[in-house]
């Protein structure tokens, strides 16, 4: 692992790091904010998965999480959204290929060798992080935005032993039921929709996965709400399954970091409460 | 004035606007954050002047001021740092020409027609803002970063009737005594250093200008501190003049928005206290 940069910020250290990933076969970049802490102390960690077109940089620059993380003593980790590099296949559209890994392990060509963001987030990156940062891996939470909200929900639902807390901003709640999801999962996983269910938050809940609690914030002026995000499907799935979900709709707010940053401190505090020692 | 964009954020509206400036003869873009307020209510306003290479966008995206401004009920305005456009003269370096207006009215060719950021900030933009936003122009504060810290200090010192509160992040405190200042003021104002004094915070104080109070934050790991910023000169000037200045040095912090954002809420609260009705 190489350090790209570190900057002191909000009583902690904001770093950016890169490493050669065995999972994707490419270099991968991610950011980590570590609040000041006692020597030897291990801190809970909040993972943040980003949305379409983003790298680690978007939330690192615009997410406004550092003040809240420093206050709560929570480490914040932001991975990239796909493998990168000249030899990585891509698609001309913004919603498939680079910047659009959808947190799946692709099975279709030419994607399957490198587009393995599920394994990267579930296995390789946590192992690397545990080795290099003062994290308490028994206290992990996960959140994300849009495609990354989908990532947080599905990874959280599939790994209840690893994540004590799961939340999301404007998540894609059911790739089975939206154009972004249909396009990406057809491309990465093939047309058999049975293979998609482990990458669909609503289907995972329908198939028996559970969360002890859930916090979701969604802007009502989000121009992707009705066609792509379909928050209502998640509301129904949680109700049916008895998952105690707080799903807040915010009049006037859109899909941007102006929205995310407005509610970031709430999410950090919500996770911190659940990640207490 | 045209609205470029508005986004709901932190219980307020973050807008970006553009207008044809009579002062610079070019279109000028600026951002305004307006917290929610009662109909007819007029709010105090905090001006933020940006540093070299920046536009309105840097602080708007990375400054983390909205939560604090919404809490305090303060409007936040971020202008650009120079005229822009294909017919605006420029210099190959980052520290002169476009993005480097230094908040002066240039007297030298080819700059004098358009590089008039002093008049733009002191006269044209306030008049435009007063016309279009719910501002209480009797309650104005000003701050800024680096070159914009220089702008905030000099404009604040020259206009004590307009600004009740002045602060700065990592300001250039004396263009007379640093390479950035020497290059820019020679280029914009000519070699006669007598003409520079009204654009030099330390010289203005030496020549009799006063502030009722001053807040400055400066990172000790700022790589421009010793050659360009020279905070110590401002400390001495304030001490000699009896200006009650709080000038805080922060170990480990650098010149970036990771530093600015760490202390932004402090500055907003400090101004809000002084801008109370």
UniProtKB/TrEMBL annotation, chains A, B:
| Active site, UniProt feature | 146, 222, 255
Q: Which InterPro entries does this UniProt record tie to the protein? A: AB_hydrolase_fold, Esterase-like, S-formylglutathione_hydrol
Which terms are listed as keywords in the entry?
Answer: Hydrolase, Serine esterase
Q: Which GO terms describe its cellular component?
A: cytosol
According to UniProt, the reaction catalysed is: S-formylglutathione + H2O = formate + glutathione + H(+)
Name of one Pfam family that matches: Esterase
- The domain of life is Bacteria
Stated EC number for the protein is 3.1.2.12
GO molecular function terms here?
carboxylic ester hydrolase activity; S-formylglutathione hydrolase activity
GO terms classed as biological process: formaldehyde catabolic process
The annotated region (Disordered) lies at 1-22
What's this protein's function? Serine hydrolase involved in the detoxification of formaldehyde.
Q: Which family does it belong to?
A: Belongs to the esterase D family.
Record's protein name = S-formylglutathione hydrolase
